[in-house]
Amino acid sequence: MDGFDYERNKIECILRAKEKTSIEIKGILRKSIAFEDKIAIKAVWGNGKELDFKQNFSFSFPTANGKLSGADKKKIFLQLGDIELNIDTMVSCNWIYFGSYLTNNRCELSMPQPGKPFSSEFERKPPYRHEIIEKEDEIYLITFHQSDDFPGCEISRHMRMRRDGMLEHWIQAESFPVNSDELMISYLFWFDMSNYILPYNGRFINFNQNLHNDSEPDQIDASKITENWAYSVNERGSMAIIWDKDNAPTLNSWSFINTSSLTKGVREKTPVLRLAVNTFKSVNHLRRYLYGQDVEYANLSDSFDLIINDGNPFTGDEINGEFIDFKNPQIEGSIRIESSSQGKIVEKDIAYDDEVRQIDFTCKSETKAELFKVSANYRYRELCKSSIVFIRSCEDVRLVELEDNGYNVLSADNGCFAIKSAAEFAPNVYSLVYKGNEWLASDFPNKGAKSWWNSWFGGLFNQPAQMKDQHLIDEKSTCTFIEAQDNFGNLWKGIQIRTMIDSFQKYKGMTMIQNYLMLAGIPVLCQFVEIENSGFTSPFPFEKGKISVCSDNQLTNMQLNYSDNHRKTSLILGIESLDNETNTEFYEIAIRNRAERLYLMNTGQSTTGWNYSDSAVMTICFNTNGLVKNKKRKIFPPNYIIISEDNLNEEMLRAFKNIRFE
């Protein structure tokens, strides 16, 4: 077989009746290949009877780093690591399927339709030839197609697939139809439309089929798409589509349509369409790639949304809000907007011909937190949205340095709660006090074994996976006060802990920076981690916002609530050991003898929650993965601890995901 050298050309095995086995075939792969053939096999029974037959045999190599390209009777295919491209030349003739076989995120492109009126002839016959060029970090595929409907016309389809997950696609006129110097080309492209994001009508809108049945493209006015990209994300990965600024697509009921006019000697190829699978971790990552590092942070809105204070969940006593319905069709119904302290603010009926898609309102609040709710009672559905904002105090965060049990302690108090940290003890926040009640389980001032931990210190902290508590306290840590401004201009104050990793060899050269921040008068603790790396390049799991909680040493007074895949779960703690990984990004901790609850919220993507409890302590954190390149700096999205007597949920706090410190 061309490209594969067998170690042995003849293999024998003996089987008993009904016995099964597998045979290992060793060899050397000389180049990227796919193989499909019939292998000659001779079976000999114990009585000497022989049977000759042939077995169909095919294989390919979906390697993590290798390249693979080729064609068989059914398809043309490219593979570069976990990224693959297939052109079905039989059933869905010439459709391109591009994506990741590991995450199953993919995009589909139809065969080009030439001419005007458009011809679908190329969807009925495969290319008459193709070329594949392999390079170190890319594979280049060209397919050639001759037209019968437009004699003399030949087009080539160009696909450059890169190792970073990017596919560049364009179509070129090899020759124009007889007696014509012009050629129209149109094709469709489609990706996961159940949860995608568009730059739309001056905002960044998350169209989510599961929420409001509004993600069909015919719900969208293509003229209101304000930038040249679309982005789809789910729990597995992402897909981005980037088109030329001067070649914006149109929309039909289920896909995007790209149309170009080619002219001989002027423009003989279409603008490049770029597809990217698992290349960009967020909309902001994508926009930084397109527009540079100084691009404004993109705050996401739902297609039906209640937006308070322009998406900033922290405000003064005067609050501005708006209800927006971004979908294209006008829906008849009634809108009611209310707040927790003032009741009804707006009540309005909307008719089909009103063309009302936005209702603005202003109010003042004298409470520490204001919950807003909008109800839209449409003819065929009723939708609700809620959002909470916290009102800043005119006071300031009090930062104090003191001595406690021989340790230099930093304390931050914002008028709602106070935190304390002592780097000489451990790289953690060991105390969080609200209304005189301690929430954290910590062994300050003495480190000690607890449960299955050794040299345990507890409290609130972060740590790279594989590092134990004793590894962290073996490293050198320092503690200082800090001020940090977020993307909305909110000025936070608090404590920063820096841990320089030198002894733990796996992460030697990495500095972990933990920031614990407050705003005056608001019962919210914001915590985010920075990584400075000067020693290694490696993806690594990270435990974010690891918090150990105990209620006066009576864990059975506590209850842990969370939702996993929309299934609500409540755990009664302190009875037996529980070790549990979930898909949640939001935990609620309730204590029977306290009116307030503690909420732990994560704002990053691709994370899982983890909780452990036994008779002594409960620990919660969020697990995430990070890739920190050598000589680079990484900031993880924030976690939040919110303490409130109100019954909060993740939907109310969704605006917290808009806050970033990049």
Polypeptide structure, described:
It is a single chain. This protein is mostly beta strands and 662 residues long. 3% of the residues lie in helices and 52% in strands. The chain contains three helices and 53 strands. It has a ten-stranded mixed beta sheet with strand order 11-12-13-14-22-19-18-16-17-23. Strands 40, 41, 42, 43, 45, 46, 48, 49, 52 and 53 form a ten-stranded antiparallel beta sheet that branches.
Helix content: under 10%
Overall pLDDT level: 83
Radius of gyration, whole Å: 30 Å
Extended strand count = 53
Strand neighbour order, sheet with most strands: 11-12-13-14-22-19-18-16-17-23
End-to-end gap = 54 Å
State the oligomer.
Answer: single chain
Strand content: over 45%
Largest β-sheet summary: 10 strands, mixed
> Which structural category do the helix and sheet elements fall into?
mainly beta
How many helices? The count is 3
Q: So what's the overall shape? A: globular
Poorly predicted tracts of residues: none
